Structure formats: C-alpha cells, structure tokens
C-alpha cells in the first residue's frame, strides 16, 4: 500500500518534547540565587499535588526536573571582597557617556531588566578581574568601558 493512503495517527504530528536545556559551565549561585532555586522547586512540587490535565502535569514535571537538577548542581560562591570585578559584585561602569550599574549573578538568577547579569554574559566576562578606575574593551568596534565602582553584593 502506498504511504500516501495510510492513516497517520494524531500523535505523529505532535512536536517532540525535549528536556529544558541546561546552561553550559558551572552552576554558580549567590545565596539569593540558591534561595530562589529552592523556592522554585518547592512551588513546583506543591503545584503537582493539585488537579490538572495530563499535558499540564507533563510540562510541570519537565520544569521540575530542570530546577531539581539546578538545585543539585548549585555551587554557592563565597562573597567577594569587592576589590575587583568578580561573581557576586555590583559594578558601576560608564559606556558612551552613560553610567550603568549591574550585579553579576548566576545564570538562573540573571534578569538584565533588573540589572542582574549572568557571569557568563559577554559584558560580565569583559569586566572580570578589572579594578575601579580601569578601562576594559567591550563591543564589536573596540568600545571601552570605564569601571567606576565595585562593591560586594550583600547576601540575603
């Protein structure tokens, strides 16, 4: 029989469901990041006890596997001294005349709109190990960042 005439099941047309991708590299976290990860796992576990469709339960379990893995692999980093740009520091810098402040945190804690950038981001990598008053190269055309101030993040 020709393939053109066979009846395909509806499931053949469903998109495959893959695990949520884990960021490459170490899973460094601040104390806040570790607390947020624990809270996320607890919230997802609590949500699984409620009534829901099989499809919703699959999605929730997939997300829970991701967060459990992130919790199991979390490496709580020590609080830096604030002398140089490092994981867990708050950095004020100037670029093209505009002054900005960012805090360098773990991948899952990052929220650029809130000024929290991942330690693996290009901006954070460019600033690592710089001291206040130093200029670092950043950008496609050799742009420069002026590091104005560095302080350790207050752990909560």
UniProtKB/TrEMBL annotation:
Q: Name one GO molecular function term.
A: DNA binding
Q: What InterPro entries does its record include? A: GreA/GreB_C_sf, Tscrpt_elong_fac_GreA/B_C, Tscrpt_elong_fac_GreA/B_fam
Enumerate the Gene Ontology biological process terms.
DNA-templated transcription elongation; regulation of DNA-templated transcription elongation
Transcription elongation factor GreA/GreB C-terminal domain location: 83-150
Q: Name one Pfam family in it.
A: GreA_GreB
Q: Can you say what this protein is called?
A: Transcription elongation factor GreA/GreB C-terminal domain-containing protein
Organism name: Sphingobium quisquiliarum P25
* The organism's taxonomic lineage, starting at the top: Bacteria, Pseudomonadati, Pseudomonadota, Alphaproteobacteria, Sphingomonadales
């Amino acid at each position: 029989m020709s393939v053109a005439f066979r009846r395909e099941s509806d499931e053949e047309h469903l998109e495959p469901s893959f695990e949520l991708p884990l960021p490459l590299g170490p899973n460094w976290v601040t104390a806040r990041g570790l607390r947020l990860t624990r809270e996320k796992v607890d919230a997802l576990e609590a949500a699984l006890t409620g009534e829901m469709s099989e499809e919703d339960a699959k999605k929730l379990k997939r997300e829970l596997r991701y967060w459990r893995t992130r919790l199991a692999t979390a490496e709580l980093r020590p609080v830096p001294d604030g002398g140089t740009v490092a994981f867990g520091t708050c950095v004020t810098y100037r670029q093209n005349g505009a002054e900005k402040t960012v805090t360098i945190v773990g991948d899952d804690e990052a929220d650029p709109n809130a000024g929290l950038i991942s330690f693996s981001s290009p901006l954070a990598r460019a600033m690592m190990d710089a001291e206040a008053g130093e200029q670092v190269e950043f950008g496609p055309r050799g742009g420069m960042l002026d590091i104005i101030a560095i302080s350790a993040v207050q752990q909560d």
